[in-house]
Amino acid sequence: MRALIEELCSVFGPSGQEERIREAIVDHLDGLVDEMRTDRLGNLIAVKRPSASGERGKRIMLAAHMDEIGVMVTHVDAQGFCRFTTFVGVLKNTLWARRALFAVGVDGALGRAGPPPARERPTPQKLFLDVGADSKEDARVQVGDTAVFRSSFGAVGDRLFAANLDDRIGCAVLIETLRELESSPHEILAVFTAQEEVGARGATTAGYGLDPEIILAIDVTATGDFPQATPMEVALGKGVAIKVMDRRMIAHPKVRGWLEDTAQAFDIPYQLEVLEFGSTDASAVQVSRAGVPAGTVSIPCRYVHTPSQVADYNDALGAVRLLVNALSGEYPS
Ligand code: CO
Ligand code: ZN
């Protein structure tokens, strides 16, 4: 799965332009599911029908988002410098001096008006993208083009570094879960969602269309384990996190209990997560139609929504083990 994470992190796919990452995921799902389709919003829906009959078999939606944060060009000036707006989740004070990449392969450097700042962290109003052009005519990008952040994928031991572990690591966990799940009494609706970073839009329509009985999101979560982090229990390398609550979702106690019981039964290290900012696709599906019991399997990740994200490979492996074991058994009555 490590190679899979690295591969998925290398594919371009900001919100609304998920074509390339979707293609990459489709290639890996071949032979793992009974049915695959792309819906109108660009979600990739892969269905695995129940292989064992069980009284408590459910229709379970699993959601991992394909899209990644980025910036969109709003204006190209006469000298070819691009002004931009950020997608909702981007932490605006982390942009200065980063590298960005456009769909057409054009590289950009995030420059800043004026001399390099000593203390101040510049806002997007002071930033621009230098795309190697000398004039507006010369710039190979235009208004509405989107760029994602890029840095080379790195690993030190089991720590993985990439600009978009959110949520390519979750996509890899979902693919690996489908690969390792030998039999299940449940109908598995694995959805690689579009446009999560702009407000779980793909999950909203997929959740409505699929009408699942349970929703589990697979996404990264923040940690409290680095200097001056917002106090939080979750730490890298201490296991998969089972969400209790985030900004827009309270996990259904039965879903959460099912995950916790599974982790305990199979000796899978886990951490309980309360996230005071941010949310996942599960929040959108939870309030779909008449409501759907929801939970989230989280992979701890430092510096989420910055161009330098760090996760621990063992936590991702734990997420796969938790999902495979939970889905292999029956849902508690
Ligand atoms: Co995110
Ligand atoms: Zn995410």
Automatic annotation (TrEMBL):
Binding site for Zn(2+) 2: D166, E197, H305
Gene Ontology terms, MF aspect: aminopeptidase activity; metal ion binding
Pfam families (UniProt xref): Peptidase_M42
Residues annotated as catalytic: E196 (proton acceptor)
Cofactor names: a divalent metal cation
Binding, Zn(2+) 1: H65, D166, D219
Manner of cofactor binding, per the entry note: Binds 2 divalent metal cations per subunit.
One Gene Ontology term from the biological process aspect of the record: proteolysis
Keyword Protease attached: yes
Keywords for this protein: Aminopeptidase, Hydrolase, Metal-binding, Protease
PANTHER family: AMINOPEPTIDASE, AMINOPEPTIDASE YPDE-RELATED
Family: Belongs to the peptidase M42 family.
The name this protein goes by in its record: M42 family metallopeptidase
